Amino acid sequence: MIKLVKAGLVALLLPLSASSFAASYEEGVHYDVVSERATRKPEVKEFFSFYCPACNNMEAVIAEIKPKLDKNVKFKKSHVDFVGVRDSEHQQMISQALATAEVLPQKDKIIAALFSHIHTKRANFNELADVKDVFVAQGVDGEKFDKLFNSFSVRTLSSKMKRDQDYFKDKGALRGVPTFIVNGKYKLNLGRDSGISTPEDITKLINYLANK
């Protein structure tokens, strides 16, 4: 009898807990709705630049977030071309480098190496050969890099980064980096004002919005 009473209490409390959890996130405080359209599958996309120091620092936070995301939530990175250190054409080359890394098994190591090249080694990417050297140092065959970098699929992915960037800039959602957008619809508001700053809190907010 006691077990039945306990089971009944749990059944009553579960929906209450779920609703109170959802109510703890407020539009305009913890997130903004920036688009009416949404992606078909749950995702979180980070708009960033390899030239951005804050994006470089965010990598350690992302490393904690990704393993805690719900299994149905995919994490994506999208490089922007409006960070003022170099012209947009140069930054688009770096975007294409990211797109190249995305199709390689060494993706995470290559991304870390690209950040390190700029922020740790204080080196420059003056031409494509400099980018290629980073890939080769991570075990990518030089000829394979050339083929992939110029491939239709990589150029298509790079072009999509640019389209997404322009779309969210037009929506007023992308004014700086890093910026996180969930399901193509919700922009995370991170920092002191929202109280969302730790990897655990960011992960919970992403999972909530991704399944909203």
Helix content: 40-55%
Mean pLDDT: 90
Rounded to the nearest angstrom, the radius of gyration is 20 Å
The fraction of residues assigned to DSSP E strands is: 5-15%
Order of SSEs: HEEHEHHHHHEEH
The 3D shape can be described as globular
Distance from first to last alpha carbon: 37 Å
Low-confidence stretches: 1-23
Total of helices: 8
Q: How many extended strands?
A: 5
Class by SSE composition: alpha+beta
Main sheet strand line-up:
1-5-4-2-3
Please give the largest β-sheet.
5 strands, mixed
Structure overview:
The protein has 212 residues and is of the alpha+beta class. 53% of the residues lie in helices and 10% in strands. A five-stranded mixed beta sheet has the order 1-5-4-2-3, with helices on both faces. The two termini are 37 Å apart. The relative contact order is 0.19.
What would a concise description of this structure say?
With 212 residues, this protein is α+β, with helices and mostly antiparallel strands.
Summary keywords:
single chain; 212 residues; alpha+beta; five-stranded mixed β-sheet; 8 helices; 5 strands; disordered N terminus
SSE order and pairing:
Blueprint: H1 2-23, E1 31-33, E2 43-48, H2 53-65, E3 74-79, H3 88-102, H4 107-119, H5 128-137, H6 142-149, H7 152-170, E4 179-182, E5 186-188, H8 199-210
Parallel strand pairs: 2-3
Antiparallel strand pairs: 1-5, 2-4, 4-5
